[in-house]
């Protein structure tokens, strides 16, 4: 099986050496990645084992309250990650910059630009994740599009340097992820196992999703150095699951189960519960499939929506539910989970904020009953209003 070209620099040694130190040096909370919970101390690199099912499912009907607008005036925001202490890092897809946003005041500080990013179409500077070892190494991970591919790199963040010059040179850990004008995926997050996961797209070349030698149309799982992880379906491959069209949402529930949001084409968008080695059907099926078309070879989504109602991007887990941001659908979906081993929803999905803030790109757990929500009206497909784009703080139930 073909694997991507990997490069490790001096920073790799620092990151590896700091794994043991970080278990007692910092409590990252939601900083573990976009939509990810903080990894437990002592977690291993094996595939995450689900915890015991929850006995009390969330209520069938939930609620959303917009507590405040944290900040506004953002240009094409995409990735969002939390730092220890509660401040946020936000990536601008088209400007290829990373900005720090104070979690209380909303004050913005430019960290700098990420060199090598080539924004075009749906490509550019996409997902961000803060290393679980951030307290020791100050590493920030980024998924971005270049002139030739999509890649994942890590950059050291030095808060002591002047604004605009606080990012070190990118240390590329994975290159060779196929790129396209559309369907570049881009979400990255550290899981409960302290491994890095990435959602990729099939770039519009549908056959790549079923080609397990390609990194396109997949969910990838890797060490913080970009190496395949023990417990992956194939020992020498980053591929964790396949048959995806365009994955832009990753999150883990309280049972350590991985969930992913996926763009459909014309009919069905999907929320999937991800299991290693499984085939999620694209392009052979879109949404739930007939038994006569693929049989048990494909995994059905747990929930599906018409593309006009969702076109999902980021997801997060809070208060017993998966929360899914909709772009074309311009709404936030709540999917309450039963807590059972099969991961089925306990009630029908419920929509909030429909049309109120326009396109919604990223949602991030902020601890307890709070979520951060990022709008996406300056991405070339929305209709920007005064103040767009913005980060909202939500209280959810």
What keyword list fits this structure?
24 strands, mainly beta, disordered N terminus, 397 residues
Description:
The structure is a single chain. A hairpin with a 5-residue loop joins β15 and β16. 55% of the residues are buried. This protein has a 4-stranded antiparallel β-sheet with strand order 1-24-23-22, with no helix packed on it. A 4-stranded antiparallel β-sheet has the order 2-3-4-5, with no helix packed on it. The protein has a 4-stranded antiparallel β-sheet with strand order 6-7-8-9. By secondary structure, it is mainly beta.
What's the end-to-end separation, in Å? 44 Å
The tally of beta strands, per DSSP, is: 24
| Major sheet summary line | 4 strands, antiparallel
Shape: globular
Outline the low-pLDDT stretches.
1-33, 35-44
Structural topology:
Layout: H1 10-17, H2 19-25, E1 64-71, E2 77-82, E3 88-92, E4 97-101, E5 108-113, E6 125-130, H3 134-137, E7 139-145, E8 150-156, E9 171-177, E10 188-190, E11 196-199, E12 218-222, E13 239-242, E14 247-252, E15 258-262, E16 268-274, E17 303-306, E18 312-318, E19 321-326, E20 332-336, E21 350-352, E22 360-365, E23 370-375, E24 391-396
Antiparallel strand pairs: 1-24, 2-3, 3-4, 4-5, 6-7, 7-8, 8-9, 10-11, 11-12, 12-13, 14-15, 15-16, 16-17, 18-19, 19-20, 20-21, 22-23, 23-24
Question: What's this model, at a glance?
Answer:
The protein is mainly beta. 5% of the residues lie in helices and 34% in strands.
């Amino acid at each position: 099986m073909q694997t991507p070209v990997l490069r490790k620099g001096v920073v790799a040694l620092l990151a590896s050496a700091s794994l043991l130190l970080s278990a007692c040096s910092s409590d990252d909370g939601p900083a573990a990645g976009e939509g990810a919970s903080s990894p437990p101390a002592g977690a291993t690199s094996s595939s995450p084992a689900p915890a015991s099912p929850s006995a009390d499912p969330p209520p069938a009907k939930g609620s959303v309250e917009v507590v405040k607008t944290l900040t506004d005036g953002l240009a094409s925001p995409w990735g969002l990650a939390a730092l220890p202490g509660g401040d946020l890092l936000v990536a601008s897809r088209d400007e290829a910059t990373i900005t720090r946003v104070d979690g209380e005041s909303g004050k913005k500080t430019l960290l700098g630009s990420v060199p090598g990013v080539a924004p075009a179409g749906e490509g550019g500077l996409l997902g961000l994740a803060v290393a679980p070892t951030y307290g020791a190494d100050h590493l920030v991970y980024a998924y971005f599009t270049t002139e030739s591919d999509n890649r994942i790199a890590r950059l050291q963040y030095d808060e002591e340097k002047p604004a605009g010059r606080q990012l070190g040179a990118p240390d590329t850990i994975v290159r060779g992820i196929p790129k396209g004008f559309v369907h570049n995926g881009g979400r990255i997050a550290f899981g409960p196992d302290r491994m890095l996961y990435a959602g990729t797209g099939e770039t519009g070349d549908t056959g790549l999703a079923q080609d397990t030698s390609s990194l396109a149309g997949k969910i990838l799982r890797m060490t913080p150095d970009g190496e395949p992880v023990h417990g992956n379906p194939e020992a020498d491959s980053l591929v964790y699951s396949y048959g995806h069209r365009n994955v832009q949402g990753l999150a883990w529930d309280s049972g350590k189960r991985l969930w992913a949001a996926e763009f459909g084409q014309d009919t069905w968008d999907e929320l999937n519960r991800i299991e290693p080695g499984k085939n999620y059907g694209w392009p052979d099926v879109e949404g739930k499939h007939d038994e006569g078309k693929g049989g048990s070879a494909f995994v059905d989504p747990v929930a599906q929506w018409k593309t006009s109602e969702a076109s999902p991007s980021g997801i997060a887990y809070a208060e017993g539910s998966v929360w899914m941001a909709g772009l074309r659908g311009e709404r936030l979906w709540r999917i309450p989970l039963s807590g059972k081993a099969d991961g089925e929803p306990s009630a029908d999905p419920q929509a909030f904020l429909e049309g109120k803030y326009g396109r919604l790109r990223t949602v991030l757990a902020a601890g307890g009953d709070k979520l951060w929500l990022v709008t996406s009206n300056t991405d070339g497909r929305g209709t920007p209003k005064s103040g767009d784009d913005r980060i909202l703080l939500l209280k959810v139930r």
